[in-house]
Amino acid sequence: MKILVFGDIMGRPGREALKLALPELKAEFEPDLTIANVENLSHGKGVTVASLREMLVAGVDLFTSGNHVWDKKEVMTVLADRDLGDRLLRPANYPPSVPGRGAKSLTIGTKTVLVVNLMGRVFGKVLVDDPFRSFDDILRDHAASHPSVVLVDFHAEATSEKVAFGWHAAGRATAVWGTHSHVPTADARILPGADGQPSGTAYVTDVGMVGYRDGVLGLTKEPILANFRTQLPATHELPASGEAIVTATVIEVDAKGKATDIKTVQKTYPF
After folding, report:
1. Domain of 240?
2. Could you tell me which of 15, 85, 95, 100 has the fewest CB atoms within 10 Å of its CB?
3. In 170-240, where does DSSP find H-type helix?
4. CA distance 261 to 216
5. Catalytic residue among 68, 155, 180, 182
6. Angle 159-169/131-141 helices, nearest 10 degrees?
7. pTM above 0.85, yes or no
8. 268 with 256: CB under 8 angstroms?
9. pLDDT tens track for 142-189
10. What is the CATH number of the domain that holds 86?
């Protein structure tokens, strides 16, 4: 089994680039499941029905997210939609009363695959529950379905928290990838187990973004630079045209549900 993962898709530049990249990447890697983080999908913050359908048509199977998924009121319409609401995950460690769900079980071939979306707490503005305990609870709640593949999008600010969570999930998750930072890290690997042998858990601290390359985290750089220089408020802007970078992570899984390889792929497209 192969899993194709994308980090935060930043607005129209990211959507346009992903539509160009997906046919090439799918032809090259033949993934069984394609997952993308969409918290920044619609003009850099939040999601809409139209933007999600655009990505669904492009070939994304399942959507994860983070704190910005709530930034547009239309997310409630998305969650109420029979198809889109079933494909969009929000961080599972929000309070139980929050709409949506943070984990989804699906069948791919003969395997039960559990996809989990969690959010970190370090440097965060949202008082979510402990993601470490939440992960343990989710595994316990889904134990009866015997998932052979467990995939986790850990949406967090601090690299330390992401790395720590990777060790927490080692040997129990098939793959853990970080999102939110928009900058890909160079630490993709199969984590070792307690005995020194491969744990079967693929890990990378951040998979990077899909968005405008020559700005600041997918945004035009001028307002951001002005903010840093003057400390005055600045409006975040997306460029009308330019070069977009598509950063993808490809995870290979064996018949036992253990990750055997993880690699990062980068491509650049005009928008």
Report:
1. 2-270
2. 95
3. 221-230
4. 30
5. 68
6. 30
7. yes
8. no
9. 999 999 999 999 999 999 999 999 999 999 999 999 999 999 999 999
10. 3.60.21.10
